[in-house]
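> example.struct
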C-alpha cells in the first residue's frame, strides 16, 4: 500500500496518479558511462536521481491534491480542491517538443504545489480543472 492510499480520508478516492515523463530519467542514463572515469561520482548522482523519482507521489483525489516527497523522512503538501485558485503550466522549449513540464497549483493562502517533470502537463491541468468544477 502506497503512502497516498494509506492517507486517504474516509470515502475519498484517487482520481489520478501523475507520472514522471521519461525525460526525467535522462540524467541518470547519461551518467552511466561516466561512473568509472568520474571515480564513482556519477554513481552517486544516478542513485540520487533514482531515489528522487521513486520517493515522489503526485496525486489528485476527489477531494484534494497531494504531493509526497521523501523516503525515511518525508514531506506532504496538500491543497483541498475548493481552495485551488490557479493551475498553471511551466514548459521550456524541450518540454514543449517532448510533452513534459511542471504544473503549479496555487491556493487562496499563497501556497503552491509543483508537480515537476509531469508527462502531458496540459492533460494534468485539464484533469485538475475538471475535478475543481465537479
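> example.seq
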Amino acid at each position: 500500500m502506497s503512502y497516498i492510499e494509506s492517507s486517504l480520508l474516509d470515502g475519498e478516492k484517487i482520481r489520478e496518479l501523475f507520472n514522471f515523463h521519461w525525460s526525467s530519467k535522462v540524467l541518470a542514463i547519461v551518467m552511466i558511462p561516466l561512473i568509472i572515469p568520474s571515480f564513482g561520482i556519477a554513481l552517486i548522482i544516478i542513485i540520487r536521481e533514482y531515489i528522487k523519482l521513486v520517493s515522489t507521489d503526485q496525486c489528485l483525489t476527489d477531494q484534494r491534491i497531494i504531493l509526497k516527497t521523501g523516503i525515511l523522512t518525508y514531506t506532504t503538501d496538500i491543497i483541498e480542491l475548493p481552495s485551488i485558485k490557479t493551475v498553471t503550466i511551466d514548459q521550456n522549449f524541450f518540454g514543449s517538443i517532448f510533452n513534459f513540464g511542471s504544473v503549479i497549483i496555487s491556493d487562496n493562502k499563497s501556497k503552491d504545489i509543483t508537480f515537476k517533470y509531469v508527462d502531458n502537463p496540459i492533460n494534468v491541468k485539464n484533469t485538475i480543472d475538471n475535478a475543481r468544477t465537479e
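> remarks
The first strand starts at residue 14 and ends at 17.
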